[in-house]
Amino acid sequence: MGVLDRIALAALPVVPTRLMRMMSLRYIAGERLEQAVERLAGLTSEGFRGALDILGEDVASETEARGIAGEYAAAADALRERKIDAYISVKPTHLGLRLSEELAHELYSQLVQHVDTLNSFVRIEMEDHTTTDATLRIFERIRESSPQRLGVALQSRLLRTSQDIDALLEGPLNVRMVKGVYLEPARIAYTDPTPIREAYLEGTRRLWERGAFVALATHDELMAEELVALAKSMGIGQDQYEFQVLLGVRTPLWRAWRDAGHPVRVYVPYGPNWRAYSTRRLKKNPEVFRHVLKDLVRR
Ligand SMILES: Cc1cc2nc3c(=O)[nH]c(=O)nc-3n(C[C@H](O)[C@H](O)[C@H](O)COP(=O)(O)OP(=O)(O)OC[C@H]3O[C@@H](n4cnc5c(N)ncnc54)[C@H](O)[C@@H]3O)c2cc1C
After folding, report:
1. 32-270: CATH topology
2. d(CA 264, CA 258)
3. pLDDT tens per residue, range 147-195
4. Which member of 53, 67, 198, 241 has the lowest number of beta carbons within 10 Å of its beta carbon?
5. How far is the CA of 219 from the centre of ligand 1 (A)?
6. How many whole angstroms from its chain centre is CA 181?
7. Whose CA is nearest to atom 42 of ligand 1?
8. Which of 76, 65, 62 is nearest to 33 (CA)?
9. Which residues does residue 90 pair with via DSSP β-bridges, in sequence order?
C-alpha cells in the first residue's frame, strides 16, 4: 500500500458524510429499500442474481429485532412484486441473537414461512465465532421442515468448520462458503491466507460430495479458477453452485465470470447504517478514495 493510500485510510474516520456517501455508492444501493430494488432490477437485467442485505447488526431490543424482521419481509415482497431473482440475506444478531436465541429462531422461522409463500429463500449469514453454535442450531432446526427455503454460511477461516460440515444433518443443503470476515484468535482459526484457501477448497469439495448446493462467495480469482477446476473434475453442474460477490468489489472479474457462463449472485446492501460497512470496504481498497478525490478536484 502506498503512502497516499495510508494517509487516505488514516483520514477515513474524519471524512465528511457527503464525501463518504459519494464513495459508498459504489458498495451500497442507498439508504432506502426502493434504491436497493432498483439496483437489483438493473443487475437482473444484466443477467445476475441478487442477495439483499439490510445494513446493521446487534440490535438493542426485541422491538428493534422484530422491526428488522418486518423490514426484511417487506423487502422480500418488493422483490417478488418486481419479479427480481433475489433473496434476503440476514445476520443473526440483526434478528436479536445476542438477546435471545429463541427470539432469533422465531424471527427466522417467520421469515422462512413468509418467503415460502413467495417461492423465495433466506440466507442466514455467519458472524463471529461467539455466534457459530447458536447460528447452526437455528439453521438445523428450521432446515428440518423447510430445507429448500433456507441456507447458511460457513467460514473456512475457522478450524471447527470441517467438523461442522460433518455434523450437518442429512437432506437438502445450501451453504454459502466464505473465508470469513471476522479476524478470529489463532487458537481457533487459521490466520494465514494459504490454509484459509485450502480449507475453503476442501470444505467445498466435501459439501459437493454430499450433494449440497454451494454458493462460492469470493473475489479471489486464483481460488475461483481452482474451484471451477474442482467442479469440473467432480462433474458438478450449475444446479450445485453459483459465485457470490459484493456490489462494487472487483466488478470486472465477476462480469467476466458471467460472460463465461457461470451463475453469479451480487450482494446488495442498503440502509441508514451505511457508514461502518463502507469504511470496511474502503479499508480494503483505498484506491476508491483517491479516485473520488481526483474527480472532485477535476470538477
Ligand atoms: C456474497 C458474500 C457474502 C459474504 N457473507 C459472509 C458471511 O456471512 N460471513 C463472513 O464472515 N463473511 C462473509 N463474506 C466475506 C468473506 O468472508 C470475505 O471476507 C471476503 O469475501 C473477502 O475474501 P475473498 O474470498 O474475496 O478473498 P480475498 O483474498 O480477501 O480478496 C480477493 C481480492 O478481492 C479484493 N476484495 C475482497 N473483498 C473486498 C472488499 N470487501 N472490498 C474491497 N476489495 C475486496 C481484495 O482486495 C483482493 O484483491 C461474504 C462475502 C461475499 C462475497
Report:
1. TIM Barrel (3.20.20)
2. 6
3. 999 999 999 999 999 999 999 999 999 999 999 998 899 999 999 999 9
4. 67
5. 6
6. 10
7. 281
8. 76
9. 124
